[in-house]
């Protein structure tokens, strides 16, 4: 991941940090606290372990995510949001709400129903 050194707007830096197909979903999945790699893989449809690890490393390098390693065998690693990551989560939750609203407007609620994501019923 490359974060530009010279920018015209602070949002460019945030975009550099979260760009990619999976990063906002990883941040969202960490909303409830420490989560194992295996749990993240189960919760994020179609992500490969390679991509998950790459994005976790990138988010860690920006201070969004960190990890706890538990000694012993087998080695157990859990990921969590840092203070900066929790602040970014607020923005991700707003983005989720906007996505839900848009899906409802388009009548694309099957996915929301399947995943148990609540949404306001379309009036009319």
UniProtKB/TrEMBL annotation:
Keywords: Coiled coil, DNA-binding, Transcription, Transcription regulation. One of its GO terms (molecular function) is DNA binding. Residues 30-57 form a coiled coil. The keyword Ion transport does not apply. Residues 9-107 form the HTH hxlR-type domain. This is DNA-binding HxlR family transcriptional regulator.
